[in-house]
Amino acid sequence: MPIPSARETTRHLLRNCAAVVTDDGSGPTLLRDVDILIEGPAIAAIGKRLLEGLGEGPQGEGLAVTPADGWFVYPGLVNTHHHFFQCFVRNRAELDWTKLSVLEWLDRIYPVFARLTEECFYHASVTAMAELIKHGCTTALDHQYCFPRHAGTRLIDRQFEAAELLGLRFHAGRGGNTLPKSEGSTIPDAMLETTDGFIGDCARLIDAYHDARPFGMRRVVVAPCQPVNCYRETFVESVALARDRGVSMHTHVGEGESAVIQARHGMRTVDYCAELGFAGPDAFYAHCWELTHDELRTLARSGTGVAHCPEPVYLVGAEVTDIPAMAAFGVKVGLGCDGAASNDNSNLMHCLHSAYMLQCLVAGQRAHPVPPAADFLAYATTGGAQLLGRTDIGRLAPGMAADLFAIDTRRMDYVGTRHDPLGLIPRVGIGTPVDLTMINGRVVWRKGELVGLDEGRLFAQAEAAWAAADLGIA
């Protein structure tokens, strides 16, 4: 059979996959030596010898057949928290968390953020998205809260443009900050917005881009940055807009600000958000490392989710987020990279390994046992989908979106590991890009290349945008 272009074909067959992590909705199941048939954006079938049933007739026309011997195939990873724009401040010695207090770091980093240009935001998004795709991520939420006045009003629009270029399924978390530094925030005046301006742009973006249909590639999330940097009315209006338009809500909670919120409002952040209505099955918070068990139970009762970002824990040096307690209480958990200013990479697969190992590190200090390694894979797939309010991604099963990645395990790296595909990534860690990433039935990364794109050209454009910006750092 002829093999059409990977980006153009709407029919694919991955033949003789060594292992496939499937889930019909009742939990993960491991299948060995099976085929996966993809029709358009969705998985059509998973089973043995599917090619024999298609034959050489009309059913086999236009079918791209990929030998998958030795491949472990997984549902695409779902990134639930990131700050793409921070890619332009990675690996900066003068911004090293370990040499600065959190307040000193914020005072130094935010003026840098305030200098970013529209081109910086676009190319930083391309950079982060490309790295995510290379490591098996197929859906990503970006919490874009930085809106310098000189950069214009179409920064989220440029992010959707970047996602379209790369083929990434993208949820735009339209963030914003409204409280001035003179009233207790950490935000420079050049990055401040009004509540009306923030809500108005959220509404514009929902009208222009939000696609709630199954397999939709573009969605918008109302995401004021954090309660400590916003007026109360900003959160109240965010809830009203999100509930009126049927979109999700997101913000930062429990990353060291609870004492400040207690002093301002007479309650900690979880109760404050709940009082404002910014809680429930349509809301999820990033971080939550400082929450008490009572607060975690409150999240579980309301259905509010947590986007756990393990790698900033290394830099902040604070508590390791109590994932075992969240699991025990029934809190919805997804995983996120967080921004490059507190992570320095956009590799969600690496976060699976970090998340599991961090919990093992403090296991003796916890009241609840560390969840099985396979659960950390679930946090990054089905858990992430649940946080984003999606029932069409996060699992490999007929009728689900064809979002997946594959690892060819016929390498020395995997000797002795192949008996347990479910625990492979959290326990062993994967140090190289995957062999294939497919999103919505389109191959976007294969054999070291971004399909249909010139990575060298993208690199040069991003470096030029960074060099042209006056970021005020050496």
Explain briefly what this protein structure is.
The protein is of the alpha/beta class and 474 residues long.
Structural description of this entry:
This protein is an alpha/beta fold and 474 residues long. It has a domain at 77-317 and 339-354 and 376-387: Metal-dependent hydrolases (TIM Barrel). Helix content is 35%, strand content 20%. The strands form three sheets. Strands 1, 2, 3, 4, 5, 14, 15, 16 and 17 form a nine-stranded mixed sheet that branches. α9 links the parallel β11 (283-287) and β12. The N and C termini lie far apart (56 Å). The model is unreliable at 1-6 (pLDDT under 50).
Please tell me what the overall shape is. Answer: globular
- CATH homologous superfamily annotation of the domain at 77-317 and 339-354 and 376-387: Metal-dependent hydrolases
Helix proportion: 25-40%
Task: Output the structural class.
Answer: alpha/beta
Characterize the biggest β-sheet: 9 strands, mixed
Spans of at least 5 consecutive residues whose pLDDT stays below 50 are: 1-6
- Total of helices: 15
Share of residues in strands: 15-25%
For this structure, the CATH topology of the domain at 77-317 and 339-354 and 376-387 is TIM Barrel
Task: State the name of the first-level CATH class of the domain at 77-317 and 339-354 and 376-387.
Answer: Alpha Beta
Query: What's the overall average pLDDT, rounded?
Result: 93
Pfam family, one: Amidohydro_1
Protein name: Amidohydrolase
InterPro entries: Amidohydro-rel (IPR006680), Metal-dep_hydrolase_composite (IPR011059), Metal_Hydrolase (IPR032466), MTA/SAH_deaminase (IPR050287)
Organism: Methylorubrum zatmanii
